[in-house]
Amino acid sequence: MSYRVCFVCTGNICRSPMVESVFRARIAEAGLDALVEVDSAGTGGWHEGDGADPRTVSVLERNGYDSSHTARQFQPSWFSRLDLVIALDTGHLKALRRLARTAEDAAKVRLLRSYDPAAGDDLDVPDPYYGGMDGFEECLEMVEAASEGLLAEVRRQVEVEAV
């Protein structure tokens, strides 16, 4: 049985597809791709069916990551099949916890930057949508930094499940 992680931002076209691609690459590099499933969604459905923002695609491809993506909206029923739901900012964290039907589901929701010890108290990944390319580059840096800690946690969980 796979360990399932879903990354969630607002519209599922900038931050969450970026971290989905980065984390999928980390999982593959770690040799865990047969044990861990990675996907993403948005808290809203404004962009459902769309690809990732062209600036996200550009930053991902320039840094050697896959950029294929189709936006979708997070559904409360998904909690039952997910092991971890990663919010990109505190607004998403609150929205996702409100959607959770049980305390167990709410406990699955975590902030991405909580896995980056260098993040300090600033755990939000800012939305780059209304800015320029520098915001997308900054987003990628934050995502890559947090992915290492998240990978370590997912590896621990997968090893626990294997026992």
- CATH H-level homologous superfamily name: Response regulator
**What proportion of the residues form beta strands (DSSP E)?**
5-15%
Mean pLDDT across the residues is 97
**Main sheet?**
4 strands, parallel
Strand line-up in the sheet with most strands: 2-1-3-4
Total E-strand runs: 4
- Number of helical segments with 4 or more residues: 5
How many separate domains make up the residues?
Answer: 1
State the secondary-structure class. Answer: alpha/beta
- pLDDT < 50 stretches: none
Architecture, CATH level 2? 3-Layer(aba) Sandwich
Spatial separation of the terminal alpha carbons = 13 Å
Quaternary organization: single chain
* Shape annotation: globular
How does this model look, in words?
This protein has 163 residues and is of the alpha/beta class. It has a single domain, classed as Rossmann fold (3-Layer(aba) Sandwich), CATH 3.40.50.2300. 42% of the residues lie in helices and 13% in strands. It contains 5 helices and 4 strands, in the order βαβαβααβα. It has a 4-stranded parallel beta sheet. α1 packs across α5 and α2 crosses α5. The longest helix is centred in the last third of the chain and has 30 residues. The two termini are 13 Å apart. The relative contact order is 0.21. It holds the Pfam family LMWPc. This is protein-tyrosine-phosphatase. InterPro entries: LMW_PTPase, Ptyr_pPase, Ptyr_pPase_sf, Tyr_phospatase_low_mol_wt. It is an enzyme of class 3 (hydrolase).
Describe the secondary structure blueprint for this structure:
Layout: E1 3-9, H1 15-29, E2 36-42, H2 54-62, E3 84-87, H3 90-99, H4 103-107, E4 109-111, H5 133-162
Parallel strand pairs: 1-2, 1-3, 3-4
